[in-house]
Amino acid sequence: MKKLKETKISGISLPLYAFFVAVIIVVTLLGKLPLDMVGLTLLLVTLGHLLYFIGEKLPIMNSYLGGGSVFTLIGATLLSFFHIVPSNVIGAVSNFMGGKFGFLDFYIAALICGSILGMNRNLLVKASKKFIPIALITMVIGFFSVGLVGMLIGNGFSDSVMYVSMPMMSGGMGAGITPLSQIYAAGLAHGNQAAIFSQLAPAVTFGNILAIIGALSIAKVFNKSKYNGHGTLVAATKEELAKPKIKLDAQQIGTGMLFAFALLMAGDILNKFFPNIHQYAFMIIIVFILKATNTVPKDLEESVVMFNQVIMTNLTHAILAGIGLALIDLNTLASAFTWQFVVLGLTSVVVMGLASWFLARLFGLYPVETAIGAGMINNSMGGTGNIAVLSASDRMEMIAFAQMANRLCGVIVLIFGGILIRFFY
Length: 425
Hints:
20 helices
C-alpha cells in the first residue's frame, strides 16, 4: 500500500490520479463530458500521461518499441478504433486539436518559438545552411525512387509518385493533402476532391507510422555510435551546447506566451497574402530571422523558453493522445493496404532515410539527427506527425528543423503537384 502511494504519474500521486481517471470515466459514461476546452483538456492530459506511464513500465515496449511516446500513440489509436471512447468525443477531440479550438497551434507555437530562441545562435545558423539543402535533395531522391519501384512492380510511375510519394511528403492532412486534393481535382477533367482526398489519405497515415518506426529504430540502433548527435545536427562546442539555467517566473511565462502567439499571428497575416505557404513556415522564418540577427532581448527570449518548458512538460503526452484518438484512422489505412502500396511506402521511407544519412556525412552533419529530421520527417503528417516522430526518437529539440523541412518540402509538393497532374493525366 505504501508503494502504491509513493508511485507517481507525471509527478501526481497514484490515489489522486485514480480520482482524475474515475471522474473522466463516470462523466463520459453519463454522457456529460463537456466537449469544450475544460473537458477535452482534462481527458487528453490525463489519458496521455497515463498511457505514457504504462508504456515506460512495459518491459519490451520501453526497451525496443519506443516506450511511453509510442505506447501513448498506439493506445489512443486503439481506444478510438475499438470505439472504447465514444464517437462524439472523438469528433470533438478532432475539432479541438485542429479545428476552431486550435489546441495543436497552441502547442506548436510554444514549441517553435522556444526551440529556436532557446538555441545557440551560431549553432542554429551553422546547422540550417547544411540541413535545408539535404532535406530538398532527399525529397527529390525519394520521389524518383518511388516512381521507379512503382514501374518495376507494375503500379506505374505516375500513380506511384502522385498517390504515394507526393502525399507522404506533402506535410499532413490540413496543410498537405487537403490543398493537394484540390489541386489534383482542378487539374483533372472530372476531378472530385472528396474522392481524391480518400485516395491520398492512406499514404499520409501509413507514411507517418513508418516514419515513427524508422526514427525510433535509427535512434535505438545508433544510440552509442559516433553518428549520434543526441539531438544536435552539427558538431558544436561546449559553449554552443550549454543550456542557460532559467528560473521559472509566472509573469515571464505569460509574456512568453503572448510573444509566441503574436508571432504565430504574424505567420497568419503573411499566409493571407501568400496562401500556398503555411503559417508555420512563415512563423519559422520570422523567428529564425529574429534569432539570427539577435533582435530579441535576452529577458524576452528567456520568457519564451519558460513558456516552452511549461507546455512541453505538461502537454506533449496530451498531444500524442489526441493524435491517436482523432488523426490516425486504421479503417482508411486498411482499405488501401495492398502489397504494392506497402512496398512503395517502405521505399519512400527507407530510401529517404538512407539518402539523408549519406548526405549528412557529406555535408558534415550528424547522420542520426539528419536521417530523422530530413528522411523520416519528410514522410510524416505535418505538425502532429513531427511531434510523434521526434517524441518517439527522443529528439523534440529538433522541432524547428523538422517543421522547416516539412513545410518547405510541403510547399514544393503543392507547386509541382499542380504541374504534374496535368502532365501525367
